[in-house]
Amino acid sequence: MKSETRRVEGTVIVQRRAVSAVLAAAALLLTAGCSSGDGDAPEKNGGARPTATAGSETSPGARATATPPAKGSVSVVRTVAEGLKTPWGLAPIPGGDLLVSSRDEATITRIDTKTGKKTELGEVPGVSPAGEGGLMGIALSPDFAADHMIYAYFTSASDNRVVRMLYDEKRPAGQQLGAPDTIFKGIPKGFIHNGGRIAFGPDRMLYAGTGESGDTGLSQDKKSLGGKILRMTPEGEPAPGNPFPDSPVYSYGHRNVQGLAWDREQRLFASEFGQDTWDELNAIKPGDNYGWPEAEGRTDDDAFHSPLAQWATDEASPSGLAHAEGSLWMAGLRGRTLWRVPLGGTEASADPQPFLKEEYGRLRTVVAAGGDRLWLVTSNTDGRGDPKAGDDRVLELKVS
């Protein structure tokens, strides 16, 4: 079906469904209160907005005492590639090239990082793009050099799921992806809040950030896969050592997790979208409850794990997350900013520090490239940005 455009809460969203389905989904979005779902819808709350803070010594809603940011810098080394359409996930492959997924096109493209040449591997069958859903995160098998397996998280007609596919670069361009093998399914899908980030951890287990699909009650339901961080084996089984018996659930009480990263001590961190007040950066502890929808941002309730940093929703709308040079680096969609959060263990050692604000538009994905380098993916062609010539693009950054 020909793509159609709808405007929901002031946001243009490109879809490929029938008009009736679009209108039904739009109604769901309007009732879900998605001020910071995945983009630039206007805030519900008027008046002054709270700003980015670090630490946990303050009461909910209060600003932390300003801590001078640790000195840091970001410079754009070069534009690696441009002309990408709705890029979402990124995975470096051995040899230095990059794989990038397209949310709406449901394709995976290889980028030669020396020349910027783009080669389409193929289209992932079964993807049903609409709203915030489609082909999202990708990750390489821990044994990629031997098995050539690519993992992908996507929205199907019935759910969100994880598949793996054989990558055969000897085949012609466009035909290099094998048939998808579904290893995990049944993650709730919605017009909004589909999560989508996947990554293999230092333990060689696969982690997936999910959303509550607009149904806030799922986040506190430990039997639901929505609003969770999941941990599974490469075959899709609940990983050994998970906090709940025979369950892939690793942490719960999340709204919409789209950033996963580990520091040098193999500690997991995650970024997630808030609703009207606070976006969050969390240090993840197995089995902990991160509060949604009972708490948004920091809380005095000991039943919930408070974030190590929080932002007003118009300053962040966080998606990708990476660790480099002793800091976490968080890509902001609505905030159009790359945020640096210096770490001291599992706490922020200084207030978040903004870089690249408004310079490249919406920022979707950030991935460590080794040493002091990062890969950064923009997101201006997703129906919620303002595309400029060359969008969307992959940038190489140097950070400290």
Automatic annotation (TrEMBL):
Residues 34-73, 379-400 are annotated as: Disordered. Residues 383-400 have a biased composition (Basic and acidic residues). Residues 84-384 form the Glucose/Sorbosone dehydrogenase domain. Signal peptide: none annotated. InterPro entries: 6-blade_b-propeller_TolB-like, Glc/Sorbosone_DH, Quinoprot_gluc/sorb_DH_b-prop. This is PQQ-dependent sugar dehydrogenase. It comes from Streptomyces nigra. The lineage of its organism: Bacteria, Bacillati, Actinomycetota, Actinomycetes, Kitasatosporales.
